[in-house]
Amino acid sequence: MSEASAPTDGADAVVSHSEPSAAGDESPEHVALVVNPTSGKGMGRVAGERTLRLLREAGYRVTDATGHTLAEARRRAEDAIEAGAGTVCVVGGDGMAHLGINLTAGRAVHLAVVAAGTGNDFARNLGLPVRDPEGAVRLIREGRTRRVDAGRVETAEGKRWFGGVLGAGFDAVVTARAARMSWPRGQMRYNLAVLRELPVFRPIPYAIECDGERVETRAMLVAVANTASFGGGMRICPEASPTDGLLDVLILHAISIPGFLRVFPSVYSGSHVGHPRVEIRRAARVRLEAAGVPTQADGEPFAPLPLEVENVPGALTVLAPTSPGRPR
């Protein structure tokens, strides 16, 4: 249950607050709550306790599906959905949003996100309250929903989903390296992983198909985006929209490490798209091929290449403002 681009929230740290509630509630009034207490340097625990209290005070039947591990949390949330929970409410960063997306995509279950992490890119891109449990619970009480697209990947283990950005290349390699590190904690662990990976990283030979149109190139990274940003505000595909039925595909073609370091800071403003080595395509279906390359999605380690990503329009029903405005 790590944060986007800075995998600090280890699943083993997730703890349970209470026993699951009894089954049999009407779906809209039954909420499955999953909390990552380590998100946002402990903000997740505070936000989770407040969310639980606010939901119960509002009269919701709450099943606390938080577990000691990610697998346990997923299993408890699935059990709650089977018992009639019509809303899955996740508290934490983009890693928790990723869990919620995989629990609710393609199902008649609402997703509520209480953003309490470091990056919170998924929440920001949808105009959700950030570090504001009261605002998030208000959206649940008002029942305002927004249908948004999601990326779907078929793997040997079954369907996997993401709501933000899938990255294959330098970002995913760094995410995997950081996940193997036990020290330091927080954003510094990701930063250290970047410094260790840079000297040894080399451009990767890719084959990329966008709606059947194939291109072969050597690139630093390829990003498949359903939303504009990832990694705590990096606007990797500034024009990506979660409601247009398309995926934005960014290709950063081979560039020297000094050149990469010069272009990298501009990703926060989105001005990198004007660089001559940056190419953006749009497609409903994308296939990525490269040997031995990992991927990350919503900041979480995902499936290795090759893989095929399909945009599924309206796959998620999110409790969100209908007019989100520009990400904050």
Topology overview:
Elements: E1 30-35, H1 39-57, E2 61-64, H2 70-82, E3 87-92, H3 94-104, E4 110-115, H4 121-125, H5 133-142, E5 145-155, E6 158-162, E7 165-169, H6 170-180, H7 187-197, E8 204-210, E9 213-225, E10 247-253, H8 257-263, E11 278-283, E12 285-289, E13 295-297, E14 300-301, E15 307-319
Parallel strand pairs: 1-2, 1-3, 3-4, 4-15
Antiparallel strand pairs: 5-6, 5-15, 7-9, 7-13, 8-9, 8-12, 9-10, 10-11, 12-15, 13-14
Helix pairs in contact: 1-5, 6-7
Domain DAGKc: 26-157
GO molecular function: ATP binding; kinase activity; metal ion binding
GO biological process, one term: phospholipid biosynthetic process
What does the model show?
With 328 residues, the protein is an alpha+beta fold. It has 2 domains: 11-149, 3-Layer(aba) Sandwich (Rossmann fold), CATH 3.40.50.10330; 165-313, Tumour Suppressor Smad4, CATH 2.60.200. 27% of the residues lie in helices and 30% in strands. The chain has 8 helices and 15 strands. It has a 15-stranded mixed beta sheet that branches. A hairpin with a 2-residue loop joins strand 5 and strand 6. Helix 6 crosses helix 7 (187-197). The radius of gyration is 19 Å and the shape is globular.
